[in-house]
Structure prediction request, 162 residues.
Amino acid sequence: MITQSPLRGLLPLNPYEPGKGRDAPPSAGLPEGQLTLDDLLSDIPAQRAGGRPRPLLERRQLHRVLAAMLEVHAGRRPAVQLGQWLTPALQRRMRERARLTGPRYTLHKVYTCRPAESVVEVCGTADTGERVLAVTARFEHRRGNWRCTSFTVLEPGSLGPR
Prediction:
């Protein structure tokens, strides 16, 4: 059933779903051993709703934490002050890489993304007065608390997370 489209040269797609009251087309036309989407999906276990929903991190709160992390990165604040927000590995890494005295950062825009219920990824821009740099962080909800697991200031010549 092909009908004319109001736009010349374009034809609408043929209907691909069975009409109301009809059964799905039989899979008799499939070659021997051919998998269907139903076969693949039947092997995936159904995901169950996992307990309580995770509390949200507000953008204002993330902005304050990222600004404090930039102060640690610049050597203007001890990493210990952010102990509740950092994983032990990240806190150790930030302590080791902290500068003696670096530029003062001004955090501007902060954008968030939630790729999973227990993960918030953050990116933003920080201004040193001479340059505008990108800042990224990843927060994961573990044992009832949000903790930063990754923090990076993308500076010229930098090669990895800080």
Notes: Residues 63 and 110 are 7 Å apart (CA to CA). The beta strands are 106-116, 119-127, 132-142, 145-154.
